[in-house]
User: What shape does this take?
Amino acid sequence: MAPMAGVTDKPFRLLCKRMGAGLAVSEMTISDPRFWNTPKSLRRMDHVGEPDPVSVQIAGTEPQLLAEAARYNVDHGAQIVDINMGCPAKKVCNAWAGSALMRDEALVGRILDAVVAAVDVPVTLKIRTGWDAANRNAPAIARIAEAAGIQALTVHGRTRDQHYTGIRPSTTPSPGSSRKFRSR
Ligand SMILES: Cc1cc2nc3c(=O)[nH]c(=O)nc-3n(C[C@H](O)[C@H](O)[C@H](O)COP(=O)(O)O)c2cc1C
Assistant: This one.
């Protein structure tokens, strides 16, 4: 079950696992510790009673903050740490996180090295095919991930500028549902 913010909360994951899902990744959790005590983060970081394997997705920009977030989540039940480099939301990308990271391959390498070194559990990575049609660098990111010791790679098979539709926004008017994700 792919991670989906606002969808794959704990009750949803429990339901999916009960119905046979082998892996159900948490909603993305922010790596900045200033937000860890908000009701939303506390809910997202609660894995008590969740069947194995518990996979927690983290998002952020600073290698050391992401490493600390990985450690913190492992201390709170994560058995797999997944790093988000696929989120297209403006508020995430403007903070140079999510899919925006794919534009800075050196930073990707530093983040992956820091997180892999920080925890003893498998670290996995979620990416897009690239930022846009002119910058499809998923294979380069995959090689960086492999070199860093990433254990599994999930590819959301669209560029960032295709958001959730597979269609470039400049060529097609966005349907209501994808507009909702775009403005998040
Ligand atoms: C409502 C919604 C929320 C999502 N939230 C996340 C998220 O928090 N982290 C993430 O890596 N992907 C997120 N995604 C992307 C999905 O995990 C998945 O990669 C994407 O929908 C592609 O699947 P598809 O080709 O079946 O559409 C989200 C998707 C949707 C529709």
